[in-house]
Design goal:
With 356 residues, the chain is of the alpha+beta class. 32% of the residues lie in helices and 24% in strands. Bound molecules: adenosine-5'-diphosphate and magnesium ion.
Length: 356
C-alpha cells in the first residue's frame, strides 16, 4: 500500500496554502476576467463588470465573544467585506450571508448580529439578497460574499503598479491594532478581578477602529474628482507590510516606504508608548485598518499632494532592490510580513488572523 504523505498546515501559512490549493486552476470562461489573487474576482463580458469577494469569520480566531458586541460583529463582518470591493475601485451592491451556529447562541443574539449587518447595508447602500444557515458543533461561523460593480476601465487590481510610482495611503494606520491591545489588556484585568471597571477613557477612537471599522467608500469619488486613477490598489487588512508586499509581488516590483511619512493618530502614539511598542510596528504588522493602499504615477503627485487624508509614504522600485523601510537617517530595513497569518499565528496571537 502506498504511504500517504502528510504535510502540516503550520509550515505553510495561509498564503502558501492558497497557492497550493489553487495552483492548477485555469480560467475557462471568457467572463472570468480576473481570478484568484486580488481583493475580489472580476467577472462579466460587457462594459460593466461584477466584482465578487468572500470572507469567513470564525469565533475565537477572528473575534472574541467576551469583548465583541454582537451588533458590532455583524457590522464589522459586512464592512470589511465591502472594503474588498472598494479596493478594486468598485461599488458593493449585494451581499449573501452564510451562518453556522451552535445552540449556545440565542435567537436574540443572532438577531443582534443581523442588526449590525443590516445597519452596515443601510449605510453603504448594499442589499442583503441571500445566504445559508446551518448548525455548528463549536462556535459561530459567519461567511459573507459581497457582489459589487464597476466599469471595466475603472477596475484597479494589485498588479498594475509601475517602477517609480508613488505609494499612497488613506487615513491613519495602526489604530485598530492598538484598540485590540487595549481590549485584550482589559480582558485580562477583568479575568483577574471581575469587579474592576475597564479603563477605557479617551480611547474611543482606537476602540472604534477595532470594533466598528468603516470602509473607504469615499475614496473612489475623491480620486475621480481630482482625475487620478490608481495604478494598483489593496485594502489594508493584514498590516502595511503584508499588504504592500502583495502589491509588490503582483506587480513584480520592490518598494521603499519612509517611516517618517507613516500616518499615525496621536492616540495610537500615546497608547503605543504605554505598551512600550514601536508605533511603526503597529502600522506595519497590526492590520485591520481597512484603509486603502494604492500607487499612482509620479505625474499625478501635484494633484494628490494637498488632499487631506491621503499620505504619500514611498515609491515603487525595481524588484531586485527589494521591499524596504527607509528610516530618516537613510537606513534601509528589509520588510518582514508579520501580518496576521491565521494558520500560522493564531496560537501565538490571541485573535488570530484578519478578515478581508
Ligand atoms: P483578502 O485579504 O483581500 O480578503 P485573501 O488574502 O483572503 O484576500 O485572499 C487572497 C486571494 O486568494 C483572493 O483572491 C481570494 O479570493 C483567494 N482565496 C482565498 N482562499 C481561497 C480558497 N480557499 N480557494 C480559492 N481561492 C481562495
Ligand atoms: Mg482585501
Amino acid at each position: 500500500m502506498k504511504e500517504q504523505q502528510r504535510s502540516e498546515l503550520s509550515d505553510l501559512g495561509e498564503f502558501g496554502l492558497i497557492d497550493i490549493l489553487t495552483k492548477n486552476i485555469k480560467l475557462k470562461n471568457k467572463s472570468s476576467r480576473l481570478g484568484i489573487g486580488d481583493d475580489a474576482a472580476v467577472i462579466g463580458e460587457g462594459d460593466r463588470v461584477t466584482l465578487v469577494s468572500t470572507d469567513l469569520l470564525v469565533e475565537g480566531v477572528h473575534f472574541d465573544m467576551s469583548y465583541t458586541p454582537l451588533k458590532h460583529l455583524g457590522y464589522k463582518a459586512a464592512v470589511v467585506n465591502f472594503s474588498d470591493i472598494y479596493a478594486m475601485n468598485g461599488i458593493p451592491e449585494q451581499i449573501t450571508v452564510g451562518l453556522a451556529v451552535s445552540n449556545r447562541f440565542s435567537i436574540e443574539a443572532l438577531e443582534e448580529i443581523y442588526e449590525g449587518i443590516l445597519l452596515a447595508c443601510e449605510s453603504y447602500n448594499v442589499d442583503l439578497v441571500g445566504g445559508d444557515t446551518t448548525s455548528s458543533l463549536s462556535g459561530l461561523f459567519l461567511s459573507l460574499t459581497v457582489i459589487g460593480t464597476a466599469h471595466k476601465d475603472e477596475v484597479v487590481s494589485r498588479s498594475g503598479a509601475k517602477e517609480n510610482d508613488l505609494i499612497c495611503v488613506t487615513g491613519d494606520l495602526g489604530s485598530a491594532y492598538m484598540g485590540l491591545l487595549v481590549l485584550e489588556r482589559e480582558k485580562q484585568v477583568f479575568k483577574a478581578n471581575p469587579n474592576m471597571q475597564p479603563d477605557l477613557e479617551g480611547l474611543d477612537y482606537i476602540l472604534e477602529r477595532q470594533l466598528k471599522p468603516e470602509a473607504r467608500k469615499d475614496v473612489k469619488k475623491m480620486l475621480k474628482g481630482i482625475d487620478v486613477k490608481p495604478t494598483s490598489m489593496i485594502d489594508i487588512s493584514d498590516g502595511l507590510a503584508s499588504d504592500i508586499m502583495h502589491i509588490c509581488k503582483a506587480s513584480d516590483l520592490g518598494c521603499n516606504i519612509f517611516t517618517d511619512k507613516l500616518p499615525i493618530d496621536p492616540t495610537t502614539m500615546t497608547v503605543a508608548a504605554e505598551f512600550q511598542i514601536d508605533p511603526n510596528t503597529a502600522v506595519m504588522n497590526g492590520g485591520e485598518d481597512y484603509e486603502l493602499l494604492f500607487t499612482i504615477s509620479q505625474g499625478d503627485y501635484e494633484k494628490i499632494k494637498d488632499i487631506s487624508g491621503i499620505s504619500v509614504i514611498g515609491h515603487m522600485t525595481e524588484a531586485s532592490a527589494g521591499m524596504n523601510l527607509a528610516t530618516p537617517d537613510g537606513k534601509l530595513i528589509a520588510l518582514q510580513a508579520q501580518g496576521w497569518d491565521g494558520l500560522k499565528n493564531n496560537l501565538e496571537h490571541p485573535d488570530g488572523e484578519n478578515p478581508a
